Task: inverse folding
């Protein structure tokens, strides 16, 4: 039986405005033994002094590095993390409900020995924590769905040691965001992804967010596919290549076939047809599904 010890991984960058409140919410987590590992991504404000102050009050260790950007900074934290029962990604400007971590752990305990990931809905708030709207996770049930569009928001992700052990094996060269990579690795190797429809986190919507919710999911997806038509990078082909490079021997046959189809479709007609005709390779949005098929036909997916 695993203990309720959790290592929270936080990347900071000029976070002085909201960091105190977020650290307070972490200190108030119930029924867990919490530790924090923070990487500062080149802050030029008072962030380091805030971290230093809190390191005397809670179990918090921090280190600084050159500016890598959010995704690579979080992946560096994955690389540096020691063994714990559970791990959680944390942004510097949100505010966690006191039951956030124990709720996630109660899900993850169902599959202790299997790579497992928890993600949840988010409560969107303004910069003063006033409620705006709940943002639910668009349901995905398989690897194909996760490849098309990641719905696991990093600040809600909690995962077990079995998945962390896998993440440490390979560091992708092509990385869009850390949360999407973690989710896709979990699905690809046959892990379990739990989706909680209840939010346990207040996600601040403000001008400094790295990623925001001002656009709805349809607009975001539309923008991504329009960009893809102009870009020489086949994003999902690159993701598939990275997954195969890192985990080929651990990916179930069914998922490996999907990955091979994504890698081969620009020059393999059978692979292209397999993607176009798969009943699982779709989103909940009809127009986006049409755009996706066009992208595959034009070798832009």
Result:
């Amino acid at each position: 039986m695993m203990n309720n010890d959790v290592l929270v991984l936080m990347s900071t960058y000029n976070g002085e405005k909201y960091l105190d409140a977020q650290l307070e919410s972490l200190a108030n987590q119930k029924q867990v033994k919490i530790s924090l590992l923070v990487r500062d991504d080149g802050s030029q404000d008072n962030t380091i002094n805030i971290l230093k102050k809190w390191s005397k009050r809670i179990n918090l260790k921090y280190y600084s590095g050159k500016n890598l950007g959010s995704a690579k900074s979080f992946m560096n934290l994955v690389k540096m993390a020691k063994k714990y029962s559970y791990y959680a990604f944390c942004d510097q400007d949100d505010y966690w409900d006191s039951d956030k971590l124990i709720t996630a752990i109660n899900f993850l305990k169902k599959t202790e020995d299997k790579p497992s990931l928890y993600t949840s809905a988010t409560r969107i708030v303004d910069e003063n924590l006033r409620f705006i709207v709940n943002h639910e996770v668009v349901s995905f049930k398989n690897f194909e769905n996760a490849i098309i569009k990641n719905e696991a928001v990093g600040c809600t992700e909690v995962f077990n040691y079995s998945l962390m052990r896998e993440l440490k094996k390979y560091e992708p060269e092509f990385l869009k965001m850390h949360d999407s990579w973690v989710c896709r690795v979990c699905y690809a190797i046959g892990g379990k992804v739990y989706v909680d429809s209840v939010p346990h986190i207040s996600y601040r919507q403000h001008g400094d967010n790295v990623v925001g919710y001002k656009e709805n999911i349809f607009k975001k997806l539309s923008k991504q596919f329009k960009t893809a038509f102009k870009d020489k990078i086949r994003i999902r082909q690159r993701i598939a290549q990275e997954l195969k490079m890192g985990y080929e021997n651990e990916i179930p046959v069914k998922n490996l076939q999907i990955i091979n189809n994504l890698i081969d479709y620009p020059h393999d007609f059978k692979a292209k047809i397999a993607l176009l005709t798969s009943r699982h390779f779709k989103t909940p949005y009809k127009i986006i599904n049409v755009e996706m098929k066009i992208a595959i036909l034009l070798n832009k997916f």
In short: The chain has a mean pLDDT of 91. The chain has two domains: 5-204, 217-297. Residues 217-230 form the longest helix (14 residues).
